[in-house]
Automatic annotation (TrEMBL):
<keyword id="KW-0812">Transmembrane</keyword>
<keyword id="KW-0325">Glycoprotein</keyword>
<keyword id="KW-0472">Membrane</keyword>
<keyword id="KW-0735">Signal-anchor</keyword>
<keyword id="KW-1133">Transmembrane helix</keyword>
<comment type="pathway">
    <text>Protein modification; protein glycosylation.</text>
</comment>
<keyword id="KW-0333">Golgi apparatus</keyword>
<dbReference type="GO" id="GO:0015020">
    <property type="term" value="F:glucuronosyltransferase activity"/>
</dbReference>
<dbReference type="GO" id="GO:0000139">
    <property type="term" value="C:Golgi membrane"/>
</dbReference>
<dbReference type="GO" id="GO:0042285">
    <property type="term" value="F:xylosyltransferase activity"/>
</dbReference>
<protein>
    <recommendedName>
        <fullName>LARGE xylosyl- and glucuronyltransferase 1</fullName>
    </recommendedName>
</protein>
<keyword id="KW-0511">Multifunctional enzyme</keyword>
<keyword id="KW-0732">Signal</keyword>
<keyword id="KW-0808">Transferase</keyword>
<keyword id="KW-0328">Glycosyltransferase</keyword>
<dbReference type="InterPro" id="IPR051292">
    <property type="entry name" value="Xyl/GlcA_transferase"/>
</dbReference>
<dbReference type="Pfam" id="PF13896">
    <property type="entry name" value="Glyco_transf_49"/>
</dbReference>
Length: 657
């Protein structure tokens, strides 16, 4: 893994010992491992990020099949469903339950805790989870596992009598009521219990009429307490105070609570004894503890751990292969590994783990149905362009970022430290995790396009700064050119500068002046004229109304289109023909190319990308690209028949820069 920079020597030893123990346990086991059920309440964008780190820590140590039960709002469900679908981890099943349908069950309870209404939903799990599910481990999102979750699952066997709840004692003085003057907590047994980790015997709880039990308790206590301070935890403790026989106290290493004023250090003699770490302070990683550096490093290890490594099969535990995995394996087996272009072909079918909406996102649809989203993709070396683009484009933006797990965290820190980016909530950041040797440019574009929720999208690239006011100009053009009822691709003329510091032209007149002075040039005029020649820059200079242009071979303009336009062809990766093929597809589907007379965008200079360097230096790369182009053209012929002949002619004339 490229990104485990925080793994200490002792943790490395533990990892080795863990795998040795895992292998030994499987050799000695005569039966298939039992599926472990885990329930997690998760709502919103930030909590979805936290869940990923928790899940990584569980997957890293596990040797059993897992079934995750997520109680989510619509946001978290969209994010996590996409993530697990693209993660493709063997022996993992995921189910979702709509938290919005459960709100009425707990909305009557006033709650001061920052978790809001979702912090009360663990109370209704007996009703929410399948009626045939007998037991489940319930976890908060701010948990990190340092051991195999099967060890915790095994504790169910230690429950006796009427014990139905497995909990660790609260490690702060909260329920003792001595933290400050007039502090009046909810009733609890002694120090009370923390609900960050719960073992629930669901079948027994249902027989005990758990729903009625907690409701009556909550109603009674709220008459004097008025609201909960610690959400579900207050109500769980009030029930246990009245019915102490319900609880099986877990050893405190199963929930080492790193909140302020805790006794967590008394939980363990050595950090190697730790099982579960709970970051239950709002300060999270900044909490005070004499071993916090070790805890932080353990957390950061999983935060930045390459999730692709967790796709490994379980030893001795054949997992059910889903249809998607089966079809993928079948497709890959059909590829010829001796083909010189095998790696190119394989990339087309690679499933990249994808985390949609990595940061908080808000968008209010416009009433007039003219809204436009800027679509682009980037890698770590282009982060510096984000602030500038946000200053030039005030409308919604959909970005796909190609990053490793460690880079995703660097991006998060960069974004959270930027006033410009944090002031914008209408930018969707979608992380596509790195895998393989190519930059999957068209997959990234497709990911960003699929998350567009405006009627129109402006298909740009990250190195371009749109002119000031382009967003509003495009919205007006939607109406003027009747985009809703016609198939048009509105061309935004592209220019470039070789200067890193440019006085960005505020008008077309100013741009033409800089063009005449040699400060600006038409885009790629010196290396690839054909890419933008059909735009007809000579006509554009004096144009005052939109004008139509015809498709020509190798045309690759930047366009605004309706959201329902075709996706990009994934066979083209890295450098070469990735946009050309898309524009050809638009032409085949009879889109009109219309150049906007008062729109422009400027390409900013940057170092050559790794892919263009490979294209220029690697003959096999160029040979494979030519092969892929020919195959694409054959596909076009099959799909569009006689009308596609012109693309074949154009293909034969094509030469790349």
């Amino acid at each position: 893994m490229h990104s485990i920079m925080f793994l200490s020597a002792s943790l490395c030893i533990n990892v080795f010992v863990h795998f040795f123990d895992t292998f030994s346990a499987i050799i000695n086991s005569s039966s298939l491992p039992q599926t472990i059920h885990v329930a997690i309440v998760c709502a919103g964008y930030n909590a979805s990020r936290d869940v990923v780190t928790l899940v990584k820590s569980v997957l890293f140590h596990r040797r059993n099949p897992l079934h995750f039960h997520f109680i989510t709002d619509s946001i978290a469900q969209q994010i996590l469903a996409s993530l697990f679908h693209t993660w493709m981890v063997p022996a993992v099943r995921v189910d979702f339950y709509d938290a919005d349908e459960l709100k009425s069950e707990v909305s009557w309870i006033p709650n001061k805790h920052y978790s809001g209404i979702y912090g009360l939903m663990k109370l209704v799990l007996t009703k929410t989870l399948p009626s045939d599910l007998q037991k489940v481990i319930v976890l908060d999102t701010d948990i990190t596992f340092a051991t195999d979750i099967a060890e915790l699952w095994a504790v169910f066997h230690k429950f006796k009598g009427q014990q139905v709840l497995g909990l660790v004692e609260n490690q702060s003085d909260w329920y003792l009521g001595n933290l400050w003057k007039n502090h009046r907590p909810w009733p609890a047994l002694g120090r009370g219990f923390n609900t960050g980790v719960i073992l629930l015997l669901l079948d027994r709880l249902r027989k005990l009429r758990w729903e009625q039990m907690w409701r009556l308790t909550a109603e009674r206590e709220l008459m004097s307490m008025l609201s909960t301070s610690l959400a579900d935890q207050d109500i769980f403790n009030a029930v246990i105070k009245q019915n102490p026989f319900l609880v099986h106290q877990l050893p405190c290493f199963w929930n080492v609570q790193l909140s302020d004023h805790t006794r967590s250090e008394k939980c363990y003699k050595d950090v190697s004894d730790l099982k579960v770490i709970h970051w239950n302070s709002p300060k999270k990683l900044r909490v005070k503890n004499k071993h916090v550096e070790f805890f932080r490093n353990l957390y950061l290890t999983f935060l930045e751990y390459d999730g692709n490594l967790l796709r490994r099969e379980l030893f001795g535990c054949p997992s059910k292969t889903d249809h998607n995995s089966e079809n993928l394996q079948k497709t890959l087996l059909e590829l010829d590994e001796d083909d010189p272009c095998y790696e190119f072909r394989r990339e087309r079918f690679t499933v990249h783990r994808t985390h949609l909406y990595f940061l908080h996102y808000e968008y209010e649809p416009s009433a007039d149905q003219t809204d436009v989203t800027l679509v682009a993709q980037l890698s770590m070396d282009r982060l510096q362009m984000l602030e500038a683009i946000c200053k030039h484009w005030e409308g919604p933006i959909s970005l796909a970022l190609y990053l490793s797990d460690a880079e995703a965290q660097q991006f998060l820190r960069y974004a959270q430290g930027s006033e410009v980016l944090m002031s914008r909530s209408n930018v969707g950041y979608h992380i596509v995790y790195k895998e393989g040797q190519f930059y999957p440019v068209n997959l990234l574009r497709n990911v960003a396009m699929r998350q567009v929720n405006t009627p129109y999208m402006f298909l740009s690239d990250i190195d371009f700064l749109p002119m000031y006011g382009l967003y509003e100009y495009l919205r007006k053009s939607v109406v003027q050119l009747d985009m809703a009822n016609t198939k048009k691709a509105l061309v935004v003329p592209a220019f470039e500068t070789l200067r890193y510091r440019l006085s960005y032209p505020k008008s077309k007149a100013e741009l033409l002046s800089q063009l005449d002075m040699g400060t600006l040039f038409t885009f790629r005029y010196h290396v690839w004229t054909k890419g933008h020649a059909p735009t007809n820059f000579a006509k554009w200079r004096t144009a005052t109304t939109p004008y139509r242009v015809q498709w020509e071979a190798d045309f690759e303009p930047y366009v605004m289109v309706r959201r329902d336009c075709p996706e990009y062809d994934r066979r083209f990766v890295g450098f070469g023909w990735n946009k050309v093929a898309h524009i050809m597809e638009l032409d085949a589907q009879e889109y009109e190319f219309v150049v906007l007379p008062n729109a422009y965008m400027i390409h900013m200079p940057h170092a050559p990308s790794f892919d263009i360097t490979k294209f220029r230096s690697n003959k096999q790369y160029r040979v494979c690209l030519k092969t892929l182009k020919e195959e694409f053209q054959q596909n076009m012929s099959r799909r569009y028949g006689f009308a596609a002949l012109k693309y074949m002619t154009g293909l034969k004339r094509t030469r790349m820069p």
